[in-house]
Write a structure and sequence with these properties.
By secondary structure, the chain is an alpha/beta fold. The chain has helices at residues 15-23, 39-51, 71-83, 98-106, 114-130, 141-152, 167-176, 190-198, 228-239, 243-258, and strands at residues 3-8, 29-34, 56-60, 90-95, 134-137, 158-161, 179-182, 204-206.
């Protein structure tokens, strides 16, 4: 069976590792959702999408764990996304800077989240304008802020990647029909394993978030899309399902959410 990696950053790989990644496309990997960090990242993903049509599916956005772009840079990015929107599978990766914010606050430095909330809302409106799913980087208490924005604009085609958060947020997201994607740390992180146990399998996808490295039996290995096979197997165990049945459901979830034909 072929797999779909619902969240990966191919442009962050070394050229040798990227070559290894791309060689998996069409072999044991049906497709990847390649998310973007900024405009240069968007351009790289678009070029690779042209080279691997139908298998390399790009999303365009601005990763929140970096400084807010100035107005000119933001306007250029939004104009570029509008120009190339027919070639995008989604808007992403966008969201809120939980990890940067908490690092600042741990050092006693105040962090103004409002500009990030405003930028995210503009991306949500862009996803509505272009009729695209939105891929979100939002964990713990930040996820509740994002849920509020999505609810405000009646957006339901939302994908929270590598999500972590409290039970009340998990229930809110599931109730709203949002999808989440599970990464290889489900094989060894109890927090993620518990999330899988309670989240509806009909709203689950799998991802690597490569080139992010993982522990346990993945330690020291290049993070490649084929690793989602292990993620699907672990989900099957946690859900009490046959692995092939779980794989079929998760693949169909991803195809349905991203409108992959």
């Amino acid at each position: 069976m072929k797999w779909i990696d619902a969240h990966i950053h191919p442009d962050l790989y070394s050229l040798d590792d990227r070559k290894q990644l791309l060689e998996q496309l069409g072999v044991n990997v049906e497709a990847i959702i390649a998310v973007s960090l900024h405009q240069d990242s968007c351009r790289t993903n678009l070029e690779l999408a042209h080279a691997y049509s139908g298998m390399y599916l790009p999303a365009f956005g601005y990763h929140p764990e970096q400084p807010i772009p100035d107005m000119e840079v933001e306007q250029q990015l939004f104009a570029w996304i509008r120009e190339h929107h027919t070639e995008a599978i989604a808007i992403g990766e966008v969201g809120l800077p939980y990890y940067t914010r908490t690092e600042f606050e741990a050092k006693g430095i105040s962090y103004n989240l409002n500009p990030y909330i405003s930028l995210l809302e503009r991306f949500i409106l862009l996803s509505i304008e272009l009729n695209k799913p939105i891929i979100l980087h939002a964990v713990y208490e930040d996820a509740d802020i994002v849920c509020g924005l999505l609810e405000k604009h009646c957006v339901t085609t939302a994908h929270f990647h590598w999500f972590k958060g409290p039970e009340h947020t998990v229930k809110r997201m599931a109730r709203n029909g949002y999808y989440i994607s599970i990464s290889p740390d489900v094989c060894y992180e109890e927090e993620i394993r518990e999330l899988v146990r309670i989240y509806p399998i009909e709203q689950l996808m799998v991802e690597t978030d490569g080139p992010w490295p993982f522990e346990a039996h993945f330690k020291g290995k290049t993070t490649l899309p084929s690793m989602v096979r292990d993620v699907v197997h672990e989900i099957a165990v946690l859900k009490g399902l046959d692995p092939l049945k779980a794989a079929s459901i998760i693949n169909e979830n991803t195809r349905r959410f991203y409108r992959i034909e």
